[in-house]
Each structure stands twice: as C-alpha cells, then as structure tokens.
Amino acid sequence: MSGAPPIGAFPQTPVAASKRGPVKAPAAASPSAPSPSYPAAAANARSTTTTRSSPLPVAPQAGASTTAGSAPLIPLHILDAPTQRLYALGFYVALLAWKFYNWAQLVEEDTESFWLFLKWIAIDCAFLFGLPELRIPWLELSQPFVVAAFFVHAVFDWLLMFNIGFPWQAWILGLVKIFYDRELAISEHNVKLSSIIHNSSLIMGRQIINILPEGSAVLNPDLHPFCLGGDRKTAPIPIFFNATIPVEVELIRTDLETNQQESIKLTRVQIRDIERKAKRESQEGVQTVVQFDYPAKKPGAYRLGRVLDEYKLEVQRKNPQTFVVPCPKAWVGPPASPGRCLGDLSDLTLQAEGIPPLKIKYSRTINGKDHSFHFQSLQPEGFVSPLGTLRSTSLIGLDDEDISWARSQRVPVGLNESMHASGDWQYSVDEVQDGFGNLVKYDSPADDPEGRPKPKHLVQNFVVKERPQVRLEGCDLRNPLKVAKGNEKELPVRFGIAGQTPDVTAHSLTWQFSPIDTLTESGDHGDVVSIGSYNAKNARDRPRISAPGLYTLKSVSASSCEGEVQEPSSCLLLNPLEPKLTIRSEEIPDTCAGNSIGLRVDMDLIGTPPFIVRYDVISNGQRRSERVSIPGLRYQMDLVPRIAGHHKYIFTHVGDDIYSGQKLTGSEYVLEQDVKPAAAALIQHSTGKMSSCLGDEVTVDILLLGEPPFTLEWEIIHDGKRKLHKATDIQSNSYQIKTAPLTQGGEYTLGLTSVQDTRGCRNFVQDELKISVRRQSPRAAFGQIEGKRKVLAVEGSTVKLPVRLTGEGPWKVFYANLNDGPPDNPKILERTVRNDNGYLDVKGRGTYTITDVWDSQCHGVVDPKASRFDVDWFPRPEMSVVLSHGVSQADDGYVLEDVCEGDVSGFEVALKGTPPYTVEYEVRHHPLQGSSSLSKKKFDASLGKESIQADTAKAGLYTYKFTALEDNLYSSDRHFKPLVVKQKVNRKPSASFAKPGQTFKYCKSEQDNEDGIPVTLTGVPPFSLEVEIKHQSAAVPEIYRTPTINSHSYEIRIPRHQLRLGTQQIRIRDVKDGSGCHSMAELGGPSVQVQLFEAPTIYPLETRTDYCVGERISYTLSGTPPFEVWYTFDGTERKAKSPTTSFRRVAESPGEFTITSLADRASECRAPVHITKTIHPMPAVRISKGKNVRVDIHEGGEVEILFEFWGTPPFEFTYTRSTNARKGQRSQVLETRHDVSHEHSKIIRANQEGTYEVVAIKDKYCAFSTQGAEAGKKDAGGKAQKVIKYH
C-alpha cells in the first residue's frame, strides 16, 4: 500500500507521465527512441526487471496491481482520461449555471423556495455520489470527501434557494445578468429587458440654430394661385428678397405626376436683373424689398431650395410650397344627338378636369330664357384632399411629401332631366374652378367684344319637338266606310301637332288590318292580321284603302318622335252590292175625253238607298234629261206630260249611295206614249190616312194635272157635318190645302170633289184623306210592383220596370238613370215600347226617371208623380270568420292560434244572405316532411253561424280554403272571393341528452367558456326544460328550469347554487316549446353525471392598474401547480403555464393586459377571472420631425421649434440649449429649461444660437430620461430601477 495515493489526493496517471516526455533511459538506450505509450510501457514493465531510478513514483502495474473492477467505467481506449475529466467538469459547471438560474428566478419572481431546495439537494447528491462510480482517473473521490462536499453543497443550496443574503450575492446576480438578461414577456417570448428600457427612439431630433446676417427671401407671400394652360403659357411666381442681394437662388420643383424633384437655379441673367433692381431701388430710397417674377413653364410644387447672399451665406427663407397646376377646363361630351322629343331625357354629360374639388357653372337656355346652375365640390369617389379643410389657395403650408392629391383629375357630371317644353334648348359651360381657386371663364357671345360664339365643345344644342297626335274622323265601328267594289277611299285620318301647322309635317302611320270574313263575332280582329304603313307628306296626305275589313291605327311618328293614337282608332270598310233597276208601266186614261194622259211606272231597285235614276225625255223632238231620287227599294212614278204629243222615256243610268252612273241598256228601259192630258187632282199622300194631334193644323199637298188655270173643290166632314171649300185660278200644277186648327178630337175626312182646267171640263174627283185627331195627348208613368215603385232584384239580372202609356203605340220613351253620369246631366236612354202596359228592361241599379215620351205621332207628357222608380240588388251572400280568442286576421286571410297534436280546435264562420246556405271548402295539409294532401268538403247551413271542427290529428300546416258560397238567390260565381284560414298544428316537443351517460366536470365558480350539457330538442323554439338534479347525499331531488331556449340544440348550464361538491345525477323531466306544447319524459330515462370541483384563484401583488412598458406585472396563484393562465392582450388571447404559485411577465409593449381564466392540475377547472392592467407606452418626443435640422437665421429672427409628443397628455419635458459643435471642441450645455404641454405638439420660438435637444420626457403615466442617474430610483430591495417611471 506504500504506492497508493493519499486520501483525497489525485492518483498519478501513467499516461500523463508519457505526455511530459520520455523517461531517462540507460546509456545503451537510443536517444532518438520514442517514448512508449501507456500500453507499451505496461508491456515493458511486465517483461523487464525495473532497475532504473526515476524522480516520479512508480506507476501501478496494470496487470498485476489493478483489478478489472477498478478500471474506468468508460474504457480509456474509447474516451481517454483527460477528456472524461473535461466532460465531468463541464457537466458540473452546467449544473452550477442551472442552479444560479433558478436562484435568479427565485429572486425575481419569489417562487417556492422549499421545493427548489429539495430539488438541488437531490441533484447534488446524485452527482457527487455518482461521480466516483465512473472511476475516472484523478476523480476517484473517497467517501469522506464526497460526504464533506455534499454537506458544503447542501449549505450552499440552502443559502441560495432560501435567498439568504450574503455579501457577494449582488455581485453574482449582476454577473448572471450580464450573460443572461432575458425574461418572459406578455407575448410568451423571452425578451431582453435592457433593449426595452434603453430605447433611443423615444427622444429623437435636434434643432441647430445659426445666427446669420439679416436678410430673407419669400416665395409667393400673397398666396396667389397659378395655373398653366390655354393662353397661359407661363406662371409668374413672385420671389421677394428683403435686404439682400442673392448670388444664387435655387428652386425645388416637385412633379405632380411622378413626385420626382427637380432643382432649378436662376440663370446669371436673372440674378443680374435682381441685382440691378436692388441697387436701383436702394439708390432711390423707395424700398428695400425686391420682387422678381420667376416664369414657371411646367406644372409642379415649387419651393425655395437655397438662397445665398453676396457673402455666400444662406438667406432666411420660408419654405411653403406654391402649386402651379394645369388650368381647369370643362366641356360638353361626348356629343349627343341634337334631336329630342317632348318628355325625353336630356342624357347629357359635362366633363370637368382639374384639381379636385372642382366647381362648374353652366347655363340652360329654353327658347331664349336663360337659367344658370352650379355644381359644387366635384371630385372622384374616395378622393381625399387637404384642400377640403384648408382655404383654396395655391400656397399650401404642408410638408407632406405625397402630393398626389394635387394631380389633375377628370370628373364627369351627368345631366339627365326631363325636357318638358318644346323648342330650342341649349346647354352651355360658363366657368370652371379648381380646388386652388383657379377660375376659367368662357365668355358668351353677349360678353365677347367681337360677338364670337362659344366653341362647339362648350355648347350642346337640342331641338325639342312636339309629339304628333292622330285619330280617325267620321268613321268608327257604328259608322263604317262604304266604297264601291274595286274603288279606293281615303282612310279618314286626322293628324295634328300641338302649336304647329300640321299641313307641312311629314309623318308615318301604321295600322292593323283584318279582312271582313276573318272578324270575330264581336267585330274585333281575328286570327288573320296584317300590318300596313304609310309615309304621308303632310296632314292632307292620307292613305287610300280598298280591301273590305277592319282597320285599326297602331302608331304615328313624325320627325323621329313617336306620337299618340287617340280614339276613335278603328274603322270598318264595306263593299255594298251594285244597284239594279226593274221597271213596269201602264197608261193613265182621261175620264173626260177618254184619251191617255200619261204612263204610271213602277220601279223595283236593289242596292244602297237613296237611289238616283236618270232618264231622257224626248217630247216632240226635244230631248231633256231628268233624274229622280228614290229613298227606298220600291217606287211608283206617273209620267204625265203637260203638253200633248209623242213622248219617249229612255232610262239611261241608275246609281245609289255607293255606286254612281251604272249604265242601263236594253229595250225594257225605253217607254213611249202619245198623250193629251185631262184635268185631274191627286192628294199627295201614300196611305190616304193620317193622324193629327189635338189642336194641330193639317197641310195636304195636291197635284193638279192638265192645263192651268185650275179650279179645285173639296170638303171636310166631321161629326156628320160637311163643310165645302173651293179654290180657283190655280196657275200651277201643285196646290197645298191647309186646314184650320183641329180643336176637337175625332175622325175628319178631307175629300176632293171636282177639278177643272182651262178647257172647262169639270172632272169629278174621289180622292180623299182620312185625318184622325187625338182626343187627348199621350201620357207616360211608371207602374207599381207590390204597391211600390221600388224593387229589389238579383244582381246582374234584367229588371222589368212597368210602364203605363196612353196614346197610339209604339211609344218612344226617354228615360235616364240618375246614378249614371253627373246628376245635372244624366245619360238619356231611348226605348220603344209597343204595349201600353209595357216594360223597360234595365240591368243596373239606381233611380230611373222618365224624361219624355212620344207615341207613334204625337208628343206626350210625363206624370211627375210617377216618373221615378228605384232599383236595387239583393245583397250577395257573404262569409267571414268570426274573430274570437285564438282567431286573428292577416293580409291573406285568417290565422288560427297554433295548437298541438291531438288538441281540440275549431272556428266559426258567419254567413249573410238568404238562407239556406251551401258552403264548399277544401282542406290542405302540409306535413313537416313529405308531400301535402288535399280533401274537399261541403256543408249546408240554415243559420247565420256555423262551427267548423279543425283537424289536429297530425302535425303540420292546415289551410282551409272556402271556394264556393251559395244561398237561396245566388249561386257561387266569380264574384266570390275565396276565404283562407290557416292553422299550424305543432308536433309535441321532445328533448334528449346528446351524450347520455357521460360525466361532466365543473368548477364551483362559473366559467365563461365551460361546456354545458348538450341537449337536442325537437319542436318550435323557444323551449323550456325542467331538469331533475339528484345528489348522492340528498334524498329529495331539486328541480332546475332552464331559461328560454331559442334553438334546437342547447347546452344546459346549471347554476352553481343548485349543485354540490361531488357527484350528482341529471335527468330531463319535462319539455315545453314555443307553441305551448309540452311532453313529459319517461321514468327511468337517460341521465348524465355532473361532478363539481373547487376552482383555483389568482391575486395581483400590486393594487395599481397602470403600468409602463418595461415594468414587471406579478401575481400569486392558489391551487395545485402546475397552473394554466389564459389572458388577452390587445384582443389576442394567449395561454401561459406556471409551474409554481407565482406568475410574472414583462410588459414589452402597450395595451390592455387582462387575465381571463385560470386552471390548475387538480380540479381541471378553468376559473373565469377579470383582472385588467393597462400598459401605457413610453412617452416619446421628437424635435423637428426627429431629424437634425440646421437653420440659419439673421439676428433678431426667430425659429419655431416643433416638439411632437406621443403618449398621454399632459407632457412635461426638459430640454437643453448647448453650444453648436465645432471641430475640436465639445458642446457645452448653456441652459436647461422645463416646460409643460397639454397637447401632442408644441411650438417654442427661439432666437438664440445653439443646439436644442430634449433630455427628459414625462406624460401622465410614464417618464423617460437620457440622464439615467437623475431618473433612477430605488425599490424596496435597494436595487437601481430603470429610467422608466410610473406615475
């Protein structure tokens, strides 16, 4: 054992000795022989006697003194001893780093110390006692050493895990933070806290002011607008130079279309021009301001770029932009057709182009009367422009680099108004203005000095024409046109245009034509219809038609305007038969001399009366033409010549109302005779009887035959009295006898007694005329029906009104319905009554009055007491549903209250009319599924009400449609409107668990997103359920009634006060749906189990709710770890896990941090909570838009320093003014100022030279400073805080 190493010491390693160099060998050994490796040395030791001396102890023999159990666990040929020791040391260092990490977490988060202590005691024990078992050379620790090392580690673990302070604790914690400064943030990512705290972007920008000599340059100070276009080729932008003579002037032009910037420098000639002006005005002593107008030739946004005075120093300048834009313009387009008709739409578009918003003014002239109109704020949809909020000017003080809003836009303006007046219309564009205020006026001819008209693109002229009107005149269905077969006739069209002379207006007509043999029985167009058209040159130019049939005008158009067809628009054209004539003749003898005195000719005619018969008379060699008009189809004519001799009659032509001049040929149309006329007298009356009214005078025409003068004798006989009368010296062949007034009624006889002519031959005449004189005037009156002049009849039937008439029939009775037409001028009807106890057939209701009466000859009187008769209808039968409880009226009928399957339901119908009634109806059943069924029913009723039992056997929609109603007077017809009654029969509801037998776990505190007990329902929502809750420890179950359920699936959430910790059984007892139907569940039906657990809780460590970015938000948890924490941040829900009872996160960004729920391992409950913390952003400030801006001013000038703040007002900020940095010199702080702003921006005017920058910013909640020592503060543990502050 003398060779064994001491306890606790590292044993010697042979390999290490070989690495230090070769062992000195005897002199015989070769100096160049290599040192043997460990296995080789061991082999030599076995075969060679050790006689050498060595300063090192002899290594143990591998084969003799070392057993197999003491060799390294990992063979050395796999991993040599130094590498194994390195790995063991690295593993120990890793455990130590892990231990320090847990300690840092303990310090930061105040987690559970005891469990960490036990964990590291176990880890250190396993490492220290397991290391010797590896038998790594030099790490074969003895048992006492391992126990002592374990005790030291246990004490160290106790100091660390229980956070017992010791002097070098802060130094170790700082060292850890240097290498690992990351913590979990709200986003569940590790963030570096220092990068959040030290944010250089919170304070940005610097304003540097240099004092220059006095002088300034201003571009367009009066804010004049400029535009280019038309006659404006250049825009003179004024530049004013105050107390300076520039040697270099640079303008920056930004292109409006591309946003590209162009640098423009004034030429030497222009600079010299400015210099001359400045020197000339300074000599005259007028002013020190020089104006130079720069001629801008391109549109764009112009601003002063750089202005150098004669000392090569920059001149103070203002940099607002002056916009030179294309001049606005407007035109009418695209061109429209100039022709319009009255009532057409103008359909016109005005185009405006320029910088929105645009204004356009146009005028509308109608027949010389001018009206002006404006359109304001014209711009494309979605267009946003600062000109809407700033005043319209070309100088806009905006630094926005995007000037796309200043590009020219084209905006169409639609005009679509009704052209209500005929004549000349003109739309004219007068002026247009863009958003900058550039105005372009278009002079009218009246304003133009030379009287030039406006260009065509600014004017749109329309000629609005009246629409034509057309109708037929003198022809309709009652008065057809008649034309000879094969001839044509003008269609009697009357054409007109309001306000115009229609004679010269060309127009087009179209009509429908149907041949006469294709017309319907009612006289309308039949199946054969053709379309005709005609283009008329003027109003007198009418189409000519010849084909018989019906013609109906359809349309008229003139000057491309469609017109109106007025009534009458239909005309019937007929072709009557051609006229024919048949004659017979006989001689007329003379009673005195016995000779023939003439011929009596009988004529029979065929055709359309009246007829014209032409004949030639040849008397004694003299020929003359005669004609006779015949009103009827038969005629008798006496051809009695006045002179004696041979007379020949030749009938040459016959014509009627349609045909004229039909030639007659043949011997039958030639008559001849030799006569000597004798005296005769004839009463010119066709029947020999006539009637006369009482008191009338009677006039009788007498025809005298012979040679005048004549003497005529006659007598009048009445009541047996005879009175003679005589007339002498009658010089003509005709004479008229006029009686005295016939004042007595009765029969009068006027008889001719004798006549003699110049020959003195007195001839006896027997011709007489019977005159019947009325004894009284005819009368008319209404009779009575059942003692009244009033009658009720069935609607639509013909009512016979009794009429009592006196006189000689037939009578013409004139009557009117006072309800037909205006009361003061009702429509007069005429009816011929042939019986003195006749009837007037009427078919309408109302009050009928007799207005006048005529009998066959005389005018009569109307009895005023019996001149009216009232006609009314029996009421038609009516049916309605009696509105009672459960019956309501809807737009399409009646609706019965919903019932359930098997319930008793019905309704009553009310009947009005003349009983008995017969009602037919049909019942249609629409089931919930499948096709519908229909059944027809019928019942008789004798009373005014009838009950109908509703069918509720099956669920579905029942529709009762009453299709027919009859009573004793009326049968069902088209006047009956079907009556519809609807009722919905609801199926009995049912409810069942979606997952019967399943066990549901809940927390004692209710959660927002917990799953309910799913239930499936059938029926009509809303539903209500009764649920039975049976706890294991309770004898009597509890009843829970659910709130209203509006769907067919529902999740039952039983209130916690009705549940107990542990297990309970849930069963459905009753279900009721929205229709009022309910059903009981079966006993012993399916059930589910519910288990109730306690829920974990969480508490914030601080009561405050406002935090700043970079601070830690800490909570403590109660329950069984590990925990799951759900929270929302800025609307995003996240989930975090905490293995301990503490929960902490770093606020890396602003927003609302709300913990919504918590779950632990034991209960599996997700307890809903609502703990909200507001994380506010760090306040930020920028000077001069966050840029380093250098401004050169003259003495006495001021610079506006713009401070822009981000955060929550009010803002407190500290800024410094230091010397401007120069080469080789450090900037020194000259002064420090503190200010407050209640807005997000503040402007401070400065006139002192220096560099201005912010060093600290504070808002309502947080603060930040670049001076960390001043902004730091100490917490309870004494550690330095970040520069972030919470207020």
Automatic annotation (TrEMBL):
<feature type="domain" description="Nucleoporin POM152 immunoglobulin-like">
    <location>
        <begin position="575"/>
        <end position="677"/>
    </location>
</feature>
<dbReference type="InterPro" id="IPR056540">
    <property type="entry name" value="TMD_POM152"/>
</dbReference>
<feature type="region of interest" description="Disordered">
    <location>
        <begin position="1"/>
        <end position="63"/>
    </location>
</feature>
<dbReference type="GO" id="GO:0006999">
    <property type="term" value="P:nuclear pore organization"/>
</dbReference>
<dbReference type="InterPro" id="IPR056542">
    <property type="entry name" value="Ig-like_POM152_1st"/>
</dbReference>
<dbReference type="Pfam" id="PF24312">
    <property type="entry name" value="Ig-like_POM152"/>
</dbReference>
<dbReference type="GO" id="GO:0017056">
    <property type="term" value="F:structural constituent of nuclear pore"/>
</dbReference>
<protein>
    <recommendedName>
        <fullName>Ig-like domain-containing protein</fullName>
    </recommendedName>
</protein>
<feature type="domain" description="Nucleoporin POM152 immunoglobulin-like">
    <location>
        <begin position="691"/>
        <end position="758"/>
    </location>
</feature>
<feature type="domain" description="Nucleoporin POM152 Ig-like">
    <location>
        <begin position="1180"/>
        <end position="1264"/>
    </location>
</feature>
<dbReference type="Pfam" id="PF23664">
    <property type="entry name" value="Ig_Pom152"/>
</dbReference>
<dbReference type="Pfam" id="PF24527">
    <property type="entry name" value="Ig-like_Pom152_9"/>
</dbReference>
<dbReference type="InterPro" id="IPR056544">
    <property type="entry name" value="Ig_POM152"/>
</dbReference>
<feature type="compositionally biased region" description="Low complexity">
    <location>
        <begin position="38"/>
        <end position="56"/>
    </location>
</feature>
<feature type="domain" description="Nucleoporin POM152 ninth Ig-like">
    <location>
        <begin position="1096"/>
        <end position="1173"/>
    </location>
</feature>
<dbReference type="InterPro" id="IPR056543">
    <property type="entry name" value="Ig-like_POM152_9th"/>
</dbReference>
<feature type="domain" description="Nucleoporin POM152 Ig-like">
    <location>
        <begin position="467"/>
        <end position="571"/>
    </location>
</feature>
<feature type="domain" description="Nucleoporin POM152 Ig-like">
    <location>
        <begin position="778"/>
        <end position="867"/>
    </location>
</feature>
<dbReference type="Pfam" id="PF24097">
    <property type="entry name" value="TMD_POM152"/>
</dbReference>
<feature type="domain" description="Nucleoporin POM152 first Ig-like">
    <location>
        <begin position="216"/>
        <end position="324"/>
    </location>
</feature>
<dbReference type="InterPro" id="IPR056541">
    <property type="entry name" value="Ig-like_POM152"/>
</dbReference>
<dbReference type="InterPro" id="IPR037701">
    <property type="entry name" value="Pom152"/>
</dbReference>
<feature type="domain" description="Nucleoporin POM152 immunoglobulin-like">
    <location>
        <begin position="897"/>
        <end position="986"/>
    </location>
</feature>
<dbReference type="GO" id="GO:0070762">
    <property type="term" value="C:nuclear pore transmembrane ring"/>
</dbReference>
<feature type="domain" description="Nucleoporin POM152 N-terminal transmembrane">
    <location>
        <begin position="80"/>
        <end position="164"/>
    </location>
</feature>
<dbReference type="Pfam" id="PF24519">
    <property type="entry name" value="Ig-like_Pom152_1"/>
</dbReference>
<dbReference type="GO" id="GO:0006606">
    <property type="term" value="P:protein import into nucleus"/>
</dbReference>
